[in-house]
């Protein structure tokens, strides 16, 4: 696990720049290690944009922000053909999606045709234009954000696109202690004119990230832990096995992509904790973020005020770990 140290250095540096959002920092690193995309939901001003910008500073890679608006076009994301008058030909001009780290800000403010422009990019790591196909960078991570407060003028993401996200992360306000630390950090940044060593980014090489991805696959996972993950997935598809109440609360369960994502995220969580094996605790630490957007809650559950997190809480309580 020789590349874990560089990842842990990156984690420590990120935690020093992003105060009060330990979960978001952790999930960004898990997404980086598991080679997946994140859907982050939280109120404005919770450092969502800053977090991925700081992550881009800490690794070898480039960053681009795409502000999703109702008038956005698919070509504004993927790119379009530009006519070269001096050559008399058309040439494809790559769009902002051709970067290593992408922030799809307020993704639900754009209509479905624009949201779907991300589908091929997120799933296949390529963009098709006409008869041509263009490969995206090997290091490619999309972090999309949603504002849970404002719903007017938004377009809910379709289930097919939601399933492309490795995790659906919900974040909340920092506590009082973190709030004071944020004030102190901002004051220090404004007052400090010299280079602060603690703010110098580690610049983790892409090769180290790719090697770390291979290392998480080498972590030991006992057959009982693997079976536990499978049973959690099956419980979302056959909830009646674990109670009539669950059967009434769930309409659809997680896809096989959900099980694959749960495996990768649990491994990445154990890796960041410095462990050489994956335990049920690692599975439980990430199962809500992995399954939250992959299960469809029934109308009856919504009428009772029961959300996906409460259903997943019940599943974790009832599915045996061994």
Q: What are the defining features of this structure?
A:
322 residues, Rossmann fold, alpha/beta, 13 strands, five-stranded parallel beta sheet
Compile the SSE list and pairings.
Blueprint: H1 4-17, H2 22-34, E1 38-41, H3 48-58, E2 63-67, H4 75-78, E3 79-84, E4 89-94, E5 101-105, H5 112-115, H6 117-124, E6 126-129, E7 132-135, E8 141-146, H7 159-162, E9 167-170, H8 176-191, H9 206-217, E10 220-221, H10 223-237, H11 244-249, E11 250-252, H12 256-272, E12 277-278, H13 280-291, E13 296-297, H14 299-303, H15 308-318
Helix pairs in contact: 1-2, 1-3, 2-12, 9-12, 10-12, 12-13, 13-15
Q: Percent of residues in beta strands?
A: 15-25%
Name the structural class. Answer: alpha/beta
What series of H and E elements makes up the topology?
HHEHEHEEEHHEEEHEHHEHHEHEHEHH
Helix content: 40-55%
Number of strands: 13
Low-confidence stretches: none
Q: What's the alpha carbon Rg, rounded to whole Å?
A: 21 Å
The CATH topology name of the largest domain reads: Rossmann fold
Main β sheet profile:
5 strands, parallel
